[in-house]
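Q: My labmate handed me this sequence with no annotations at all. I'd like to see what the chain might look like in three dimensions before we decide whether it's worth expressing. Could you predict it?
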Amino acid sequence: MNASVLAHLAERFRAPHPETLVTEALCFVLTRHPAARAAAIALLATDAMPDDARDWIRFTSEVSDGETSGRVDIAGQAGRKTWLSIEGKFGAPLTPRQPVAYIRALEKGGLDPVRVSRPAHSPPP
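A: Here is what I predict for the chain of 125 residues:
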């Protein structure tokens, strides 16, 4: 028996990529619930991010960087500028190119790249 709703749904509907299900669920919450959106911005943004950018951040899933074949799971964007990136990893480490590409895509003052977390049960990078 699964302990979480997402784990239950992933197993019940035989989701081929549970990470995608989790990404979409988180993006749904961030786009539909102002308190969750505000909390994510407060947690991920640096002090250098302008207040007006914080007001306009919108979260979108599966965002391609346009230059390579890479895509970030969730991007926090204001207009065409990416200020925040969220990348979920379940059972797979970041590839060597991912952190570099994600940081290069961010505006100055965006996400603090040191803020990386992983589920307690996942293997270390």
